[in-house]
Write a structure and sequence with these properties.
Low-confidence stretches: 100-122
CATH topology: Tumour Suppressor Smad4
Order of helices and strands: EEEEEEEEEEE
Largest sheet: 6 strands, antiparallel
Number of domains: 1
Structural class: mainly beta
Strand content: 35-45%
């Protein structure tokens, strides 16, 4: 599965082809971001349960948001907005057997089923 993160403000495209991937400021992470509001090891994205991608916040002190909702763990769908610090990405990945638009995004409806699915960690 190929994951693309499109920076919402700069348009920069980051491609991740090996999951799980850790995102943060540290030199050793898979995706290094230069943002003082992001932790050295901010979050991890992994394939979880079939073809679903999930993001885990690795540092509660520095929030991760999916579609403007703070979360510790959430499923990611194409078109979702992932925000850490001052950096916002639009998620894009190919789901096997799903239609795609010319831009590569799977069309999303605006139903309650499309809302991010935050999960509280106990």
């Amino acid at each position: 599965m190929l994951l693309r993160l499109a920076n919402a403000s700069s348009g920069e495209l980051i491609t991740i082809d090996n999951l799980p991937a850790v995102i943060g400021r540290d030199d050793s992470v898979d995706v290094r971001l230069v943002d003082p509001l992001i932790a050295p090891y901010q979050c991890m994205i992994a394939k979880y349960g079939g073809n679903t991608l999930t993001v885990w916040n690795l540092r509660e002190e520095t929030p991760v948001r999916v579609n403007d909702r703070e979360t510790l763990k959430a499923s990611l769908l194409p078109g979702d907005r992932l925000t850490m610090g001052n950096t916002e990405f639009v998620i894009d990945y190919r789901l096997p057997g799903k239609p795609q638009t010319a831009a590569g995004f799977v069309p999303r409806s605006n139903t309650a089923e499309d809302a991010p699915r935050p999960v509280a960690l106990s």
